[in-house]
Amino acid sequence: MKNIVIIGSGVGGLTVAQTIRASDSESDITIVGAEDFYPYNRIKLSKSLEKDVTEDELLIKPKSWYLENNIMLLKGISMKSISSSEKKVYLSNGKSLKYDKLVLASGAKSFVPPVEGVDLKGVFSLRTLDDSWAIRDYMVNVQNVLVVGGGVLGLENAYSLAKQGKKVAVAEMADWLMPKQLDREASEILESKLRDAGVEIMFGASASKLLGGDSVESYETSDGKQHPAEMVIFSTGIRPNTDIEIDAELETNRGIVVNSKMETSVEDIYAVGDVAEFDGRVYGLWSISTLQAKVAAENILGIGSEFKDGSPMMSLNSFGLYLFSVGNISPENPDYTLTGDGPSYRKVVVKDSMPVGGIIFDDANKAIALKRMIEKGQAASREELEAFLK
């Protein structure tokens, strides 16, 4: 029997606990979460801007699940330090926990660029349930909103606010939406949906300055023009929570550095999810967090498992459409690129006789099939792919 302590109550930490408990009914499992809530689905936070959402509606597991599975959940408590020599974690409530295996799944915080005026009232990022409630409370008397960042979360925020009757603008530095995941044609389809909903999109633009007295009233773009905005939401990426006090050399770079077993540089300490860095990369993806968590759990169980760097993937089910992107959509020297002639846009990129990337609109089954094809390195002829895209 082991003492397993998990720091972080997001999907990564919860998946570690669930995976271990499925095979080990004896070990003590404790999840320590800094938020005052049961583990909830962060992916749904932007949609919570459209209506009042209770904590229960966002939960990943029912509240009763933890007691039923003999998992101790400590809410509203953060980790202060780690003593690897004592194998103890010291907590913000003054108590400590002994561990045999420790999993760091403490996630990340929103990155807000150091723009003048970011400390004004009415400036937000959306990362937690508290953030969501604060935005909903503040937006009641707001008419003009700026969303900085045209990634999935930023666009979902913009769309949700536009549905509430707000005049919303999105500032995106790139020349089109999500250039790493979408080509220009796919971006234009997405852009059209957003404009139909009343969202203005400014490409090659950023907020260079936020203006106002006590609260934000307007913003200035890099061309020197000023635009009204009583609320600004930054959706400009994340930074892993790597500020950890420990009595050993815990290797960090952008995140906590791990190997393929999700082991850190300190014995019996693992890291998963948004806080972890594998092979120089911090993923910031729900799907990767769950996969890494399962790998860490299986190694704690002694099964032996390795994380393999899978194909980058993005899915979006909003704005009245389903959109999926997987793999590398713009590799160097591809063999060829195919686009479907069906009612919705579809694209597959082929290199070395194998699909390496693709974009699928409005067909979840084809999206799953393409993902499997790419991850397996499955060769396919041009004729087979043309039939697939129809």
From TrEMBL:
- Give start-end of the signal peptide: none
Q: Which GO terms describe its molecular function?
A: nitrite reductase [NAD(P)H] activity
Tell whether Oxidoreductase is among the UniProt keywords: yes
Instruction: Name the source's superkingdom.
Output: Bacteria
Q: State the EC number(s).
A: 1.7.1.4
The record's InterPro entries line, in alphabetical order, gives: FAD-bd_OxRdtase, FAD/NAD-bd_sf, FAD/NAD-binding_dom, FAD/NAD-linked_Rdtase_dimer_sf, Rubredoxin_C
Task: Tell me which residues make up the FAD/NAD(P)-binding domain.
Answer: 3-289
Q: Which ranges carry the NADH-rubredoxin oxidoreductase C-terminal domain?
A: 312-377
Cofactor(s) needed by this chain: FAD
* Gene3D superfamilies tied to this protein: 3.30.390.30, FAD/NAD(P)-binding domain (3.50.50.60)
The alphabetical list of record keywords is: FAD, Flavoprotein, Oxidoreductase
Name of a matching Pfam family: Pyr_redox_2
Please tell me which top-level EC class this enzyme sits in: oxidoreductase
Q: What is this protein called?
A: Nitrite reductase
Organism this protein belongs to: Andreesenia angusta
Phylogenetic lineage: Bacteria, Bacillati, Bacillota, Tissierellia, Tissierellales
Annotated gene: nasD_2
